[in-house]
Amino acid sequence: MKKITILLLILLVSKISPAQLKPVEQGSTLTFNIKNLGFGVKGSFKGFEGNINFDPQNAEGSNFDVTVNSSTVNTDNNLRDEHLRGEGYFDVKNHPNIRLVSTKIAEKNGSYMFTGVLIIKGKSQNINFPFTATPFADGYLFKGVFKIKRKDFGVGGTSTVSDELEVTLNVIAKK
To answer: Who's near 108: CB < 8 A, 6+ residues apart?
Structure first.
């Protein structure tokens, strides 16, 4: 009887606790689009790390704390990428990661709403954006799009580069 009780408690806890996932590099993308001199420039980041606790049946019990390696910025232009890694932009020497931390996850019409904090160069900004979570190979594929203003994070000064950029997340996370 004692073994059955313990087994039932383990099953109950496993049902109510969110799945603990890790973002994986293969198949994941974080891309951005920004205007420079009126022309679109696309870029990306790699180096996904962190913890994702996600339960689609209990979104409120879910949380995200993930980073990307800021030195991996890639716009397919080596000279520009080195400039972006410098002090005036991402300052990767002093700020090696970009971090996204949730404060609330809510289910909304079959998708989810992320509320949290984005930290770039040590500067924090509150952020909200919708995302989807699709079951995928022992985990989930999370997709979301949001806009930010680079100057809010001290990235770049006055220049020919637009202040607003769009970020697209396609992150696979597995157990």
So the answer is: 130
Contact 80, 73 (CB under 8 A): no
What gap in Å lies between CA 44 and CA 152, rounded to an integer? 20
Q: In the prediction, which pLDDT does 83 show?
A: 94
Can you tell me the distance from the alpha carbon of 43 to that of 49, in angstroms, rounded to the nearest whole number? 19
Mean pLDDT of 120-126: 98
Residue of 158, 108, 102 whose CA lies nearest to 131: 108
Phi, psi of 92 (to 5 degrees): -65, -25
Per DSSP, 86 falls in state S
Q: Which residues of 140-170 are buried (b: 16+ CB within 10 A; e: fewer)?
A: bbbbbebebebeebbbbeeeebbeebebebe
Q: Does the pTM of the predicted model rise above 0.85?
A: yes
Q: What 8-state DSSP symbol labels residue 89?
A: T
Kindly state the tokens that stand for 87.
């002090």
Residue 122 vs residues 76, 100, 119, 127: alpha-carbon distances, Å? 26, 12, 6, 15
Supply angle C-alpha 169, 165, 146, rounded to 5: 40
Average pLDDT (14-33) is 84
Domains of the chain with CATH codes? 18-174 (2.40.128.110)
